[in-house]
Amino acid sequence: MLSLETPAVQVGGVLVFADHADPQQFYYAAPNPQIARTGGRAMFDVFSYAVELRHSPLSGTKIPDELGAGFLTMGVECTLPAAKRTQAIGELAGRLGRPADTVGLDPIPYTK
C-alpha cells in the first residue's frame, strides 16, 4: 500500500512514493493529468437544467427556491508514457543499487 510516511523522491521527472510493506514496490503521481479521450473526443460532459420562472402580469415574476443545477463529468488520464516509466525505474534502481527488473512502479491507485 502507498506510504506517505517516507518522503517522496523525484526520479526521471516523476514524483515517486514507496510502498509501506514491499521494498520493491513504488507508486508514481500522475505527472501531467489530462482530460482523457475516447474515439478522438474528450471525455467531458456538462449537463444542466433550469427551473422555468413563472411570470404573472398582476403579481410579477415568481422566482422558485431552486433555479436549477448541473453535473460535470470528465475522464482524467493519469498514465505515464512507457519511455518515461522505463527511465524512472532505471534511475530508481540506480539509487537503490538494485537491478531494474526488481523494481515495481505503478500509478497511485486513485479511488476518490
Write the layout of secondary structure elements.
Blueprint lengths: L8 E3 L2 E5 L6 E4 L5 E2 L1 E2 L2 E2 L1 E7 L3 E3 L3 E3 L5 E7 L1 E2 L4 H15 L7 E4 L5
Parallel strand pairs: 3-12
Antiparallel strand pairs: 1-2, 2-3, 4-11, 5-6, 7-10, 8-9
Written description of the protein model:
A four-stranded mixed β-sheet has the order 1-2-3-12. Strands 4-11 form a two-stranded antiparallel ribbon. A two-stranded antiparallel sheet has the order 5-6. 13% of the residues lie in helices and 39% in strands. The relative contact order is 0.25. With 112 residues, it is mainly beta. A hairpin with a 2-residue loop joins strand 5 and strand 6 (41-42). The chain has one helix and twelve strands. It starts with 8 loop residues before the first strand and ends in a 5-residue tail after the last strand.
In short:
The protein is mainly beta and 112 residues long.
List keywords for this structure.
1 helix; 112 residues; two-stranded antiparallel sheet; four-stranded mixed β-sheet; single chain; 12 strands; elongated; mainly beta
Strand segment count: 12
Main sheet, how many strands, which sense, barrel?
4 strands, mixed
User: What's the end-to-end separation, in Å?
Assistant: 16 Å
Unreliable stretches: none
Instruction: Note the beta-strand portion.
Output: 35-45%
Oligomer: single chain
Q: Name the helix and strand elements from N-terminus to C-terminus, one letter apiece.
A: EEEEEEEEEEEHE
Instruction: Record the strand order, biggest sheet.
Output: 1-2-3-12
Shape verdict: elongated
- Helix fraction bin: 10-25%
Please, how many helices?
1
Radius of gyration: 24 Å
User: Would you tell me the structural class of the helices and strands?
Assistant: mainly beta
Mean pLDDT across every amino acid position = 85
